Amino acid sequence: MKKKHLSLILLAAFSLVVSSCNKDLEEPLREAYIPAKLDEKGGTWKTYILASSDEVAVAEPKAAGSTEYQAELAKLKTTISTITPENKKAVAYWGAGAVYRWNEIARELAARYNLPPASNAEGKYPVPDAANPLADPKFPFANPPYVSRAIAYLSVAQYDALVAAWNYKYKYNRKAPSKNDATVSTLLPVSDLPSYPSEDAVVAAASYTILAAMFPGEVPLLDAKLAEAKNARIWGGMNVDSDISAGDALGKAVAAKVMGRARTDGMSGANNQTVNAAAIANAKAQGLKSEWLSQEMPARPPMLPNYGTVMPWNFDKATMIAMRPGPPPGLDSDGFKTALDELKKIDKGQTREQARIANYWSDGAGSYTPPGHWHRTAANLCFQNKLSELATARVQALLGTSQMDAAIACWDTKNYYYYPRPQQFGLKTSVGLPNFQSYTSGHSTFSGAAAHVLGSIFPAEAEKMTALAQEASNSRVYGLIHFRFDCTAGLEHGKKIGQAAIARGKADGSGL
């Protein structure tokens, strides 16, 4: 016991040294914890894609007293005795939690690929090519709808795979290596959660499969992350090889099923520019005097004009249309004049606080976009509340599906009304100008959904989440790229979208 205690102290000290010496890290090297709840019944929770938690078979492991398992323990102890400082660094990094770290990796990739294509010599904007992802322009252009979709599929794959893992963990009930052999030294806290299949390996394999599909140019990086994530469980004394191999196979199999939905959800037609003429005609038939026009030179085609036809998660298309916000004020109305006057007043006397808020929430090119912003908030809340891997994945899946639904419903609204932005009325923005319609505000819709989801799951944080969503919404007015009514309608729309996600959560058997 003294040896284990010393190992944990040394690892914690090592983590603090790494955190204090590396000023380039945006995220801290968080210290591992034993979950507040193990969620023993998690194998019965409702999944998104799997029909049941035993749809993917996992073979029964060898008994603790078997020759095969004893050989695995001996190999584990030999490996632990030869680990390097770099191995310990990896153990500390992944010890923050598999879902936490893979979500972080996804956000980092989103920021790296959030670069709109530049125009070529012909004055056209080439479309990124998934078959040649590292060519210029790189694939994907990780704009907000793309990021919402990528992280939604990532989170659903993690969640479904972990529900299946929990089913088999408690079905077979293999104890952690150090609980079967007291001479196994560990570098992380050990709970009573059964070790087979390894939850970290499940998450790593599922995450790798999704992210390799969403960011195909990053396969070498993802290969390295996958290997390190699985090895870290061995180096830390947390799993034997068969725990890892079973988890790896389960995670890959579940993610393959999740990708089956992704290939048929309608994303392939999201950038269909031929729909614009009919959308403009529809908006004008409703009384729109002047449609949205790109303010870039040369004019850039609108971002993903057909994204509103992609398949949502928590409601059907008919429900989405019924939830669509009513029309914005006419361009010759008093409501429009009032909103435009507010922006002109801000333009003449923007305060330092308004500028700070506008820039903090800008989430433009080179950022991981509003959905990524909210997923980071969720990850931190899960960590602070010491949720299990399964419960963390559930939070991210509820949030992720709400964010993708928000993008779909918001883009449907944008293209239905085709409303012009303030820049077409003489205003200049203090932050980047999005290349799509004004009504409704995407930031507001994403934030309204996220605040409702996170506030419902973490009721002590509800008031704070609501305030953050309001600030995110206000930021678009302070940045002079949205009218107030864009943001008010977007927040309310987002809340309804979040309510649909939470209704699913209340029926999933977890006790929300």
Can you characterise this structure?
The protein has 512 residues and is mainly α. The protein has two domains: 2-262, Vanadium-containing Chloroperoxidase, domain 2 (Orthogonal Bundle); 269-506, Vanadium-containing Chloroperoxidase, domain 2, CATH 1.10.606. The chain contains 18 helices and no strands. Helix 5 packs antiparallel against helix 15, helix 7 (199-214) packs antiparallel against helix 8 (219-235) and helix 17 packs antiparallel against helix 18. The longest helix has 29 residues, at 144-172. The two termini are 38 Å apart.
Tell me briefly what this model is:
This protein is an all-alpha fold and 512 residues long. It folds into two domains: 2-262, Orthogonal Bundle (Vanadium-containing Chloroperoxidase, domain 2), CATH 1.10.606; 269-506, Vanadium-containing Chloroperoxidase, domain 2 (Orthogonal Bundle), CATH 1.10.606.20. The protein has helices at 2-21, 67-80, 85-94, 98-112, 144-172, 177-180, 199-214, 219-235, 241-262, 276-285, 317-323, 334-349, 352-360, 369-384, 389-417, 442-457, 462-478, 484-506.
